[in-house]
Amino acid sequence: MSEYDDTGPAVPPLRDDCFALPAGVHWMPVEETLALLRARLAPVTGEEEVALDAADGRVLAGPVAARRSNPPAANSAVDGYGFAWHDGMVGPQSLPLAEGRAAAGAPYGRRLERGAALRVLTGAVLPEGMDTVLLEEDVWVEDGRVVFDGLPQRGANTRRAGEDIEIGAPALGAGRLVRPEDIALLAATGTARLTVRRRLRVGVLSTGDELAAPGETTDPARTYDANRPMLLAILARWGYVPVDLGHVPDRRDALRDAFDAARARCDVLLSSGGASAGDEDHVSAILRAEAHLTAWRIAVKPGRPLALAMWRGMPVFGLPGNPVAAFTCTLVFARPALAQLAGGNWSVPAGFTVPAAFEKTKKAGRREFLRARLTGEGHAEVFASEGSGRISGLGWAGGFVELAEPAGTVAPGDPVRFVPYGSFGL
Ligand SMILES: Nc1nc2c(c(=O)[nH]1)N[C@H]1C(S)=C(S)[C@@H](COP(=O)(O)OP(=O)(O)OC[C@H]3O[C@@H](n4cnc5c(N)ncnc54)[C@H](O)[C@@H]3O)O[C@H]1N2
Ligand code: MOO
C-alpha cells in the first residue's frame, strides 16, 4: 500500500464548530462574571479622616454637602463698571462715576448711589445698588463719567450667589474617588477635612517553579517574573496599598501558607499563574478544594482561566499566568471589584466606536479584548499577534478593541468599540 493510498480508515471531517469553546464546561460570560462580582462583593475597608490636601485618590466614606454657597455672594465676572440696571436706560448713557471701587476681597462697603456707576474688578462682591457690570472695553470714562451705548441685559457680567452650588446641596456622593477637580469644589465650598475609606491592601503573589527574578539567572528554562511588578504598579496607580507577597513555588502546602499569610496582611489577593487545568496548576486546584471557587472558566480572550474564590473570607483573584491575560483580567474584572471592596462605586469603562483599521474573523461564544491603539485618523489598529505571552504588545497598545460574544468578521472601516487604558484608570 502506497504512502499516498487514501483507502485507509476514514478520517472524520473537521467540524464546523471545531473552534468553539470546549463543550461540557460552563464558560461564564463576561457580563455574568461582572454581575457576580458586583452582587457579592461589599466594602471591606474602615474609615479615617484626612485633610483635603491629602484626599486625592481617596474614596469618600459618605456624601459631602457644601458648607457654603459658591460663590458665597453675588460678584463681578469682569473688570469694568457696575451700576443698577433699569429699563428706562434707552440710548447712549452717561453715568456719574462714584468715588472708590470694589475689588475682590475689598468690598465697596456701602450702597451705590442710585444712577451712579462704580469701578469694579473681577471677583468683587456687588455692593448694594449694583446688579449689572459693563466690561471696561465697552465703556468710555471721561470727566468723571462712564459713557456707553447699548444697555446690556440685567445682571450681565455678574455671578449670582450660589449659582455654582448652594449651601447644603450635595457636592460629592459616597464612594466617589476624589480627584483634583473634586478637591477644588470641596475647597471652594468650605470642606477642610473629610472622611474617607482606609486604603485597600491588595496582596500580589506569583506562582510557578519556572519563575525567577529579572536578571537572576540566564537559564532559558526560567521565566522572569513580569506579572508581579506589573500588578504592583497597577495597584499603586489605583490608589491601593500594594503588598508584595513574593513568589510561591508550585506546591500546595506553600500556596496554603502563602494564602494564610496574605490573609493576615491584605484585604484581597491577586495571584498569577497556575490558574488553568494543567498538572502544575495548583492555584486552581487548591482554590477548588479549599476556597469556594466560584468562577473559573470565563468566556473571554485572553484570560479564560480566571479563578475567583474566597480564602477564609479573603477574596482571591487567581489570574492566568500569561502576562497579557493577567493584565487584561486585572483591568476588566479585578478593577471594578477592587473599587467596590474599597468602598468605591462600581465602574464601567467608557469606550467609543471608531472605524477598524484591521480585519479579523472572530469565533463565537467569548468576548475578546485585542490590544489596540488609534491611528492618526482615529481608526483602531490592533497588535500583530494575539499571543498571550507577547508582553511588548501591551505597551504598543493604548487600549483594547472589545469584540462582543457572537462570531463575526471585522473588515477595515467597520465600527468597533475602543476602550482606552485610561478608562481603566491607567
Ligand atoms: N489544557 C488547558 N491548557 C491551558 C488552558 C486551558 O484552558 N486548558 N488555558 C490556557 C490559557 S488561555 C492560559 S492564559 C494559560 C494560563 O494558565 P495558568 O494560569 O495556569 O498559567 P501558567 O501555566 O502558570 O503560566 C502560563 C504562562 O505564563 C507564564 N507566567 C506565569 N507566571 C508568570 C509571571 N509572573 N511572569 C511572567 N510569565 C509568567 C508561564 O511561564 C507560562 O508560560 O494556560 C493555557 N493552557
Ligand atoms: O488567557 Mo489565555 O490565552 O487567553 O492567555
From TrEMBL:
EC number: 2.10.1.1
Enzyme category, top tier: transferase
Domain of life: Bacteria
SUPFAM superfamilies in the record: MoeA C-terminal domain-like, MoeA N-terminal region -like, Molybdenum cofactor biosynthesis proteins
Pfam families: MoCF_biosynth (PF00994), MoeA_C (PF03454), MoeA_N (PF03453)
Cofactor needs: Mg(2+)
Statement: the UniProt record of this protein carries the keyword Metal-binding: yes
Coiled-coil regions, chain positions: none
GO terms under cellular component: cytosol
A molecular function GO annotation: metal ion binding
Entry keyword set: Magnesium, Metal-binding, Molybdenum, Molybdenum cofactor biosynthesis, Transferase
Pathway(s) it belongs to: Cofactor biosynthesis; molybdopterin biosynthesis
MoaB/Mog domain segment(s): 203-340
Reaction equations catalysed: adenylyl-molybdopterin + molybdate = Mo-molybdopterin + AMP + H(+)
Example of a GO biological process term: Mo-molybdopterin cofactor biosynthetic process
Keyword Transferase: yes
Function: Catalyzes the insertion of molybdate into adenylated molybdopterin with the concomitant release of AMP.
UniProt family annotation: Belongs to the MoeA family.
Protein name stated in the entry: Molybdopterin molybdenumtransferase
Provenance organism: Profundibacterium mesophilum KAUST100406-0324
Gene designation per UniProt: moeA
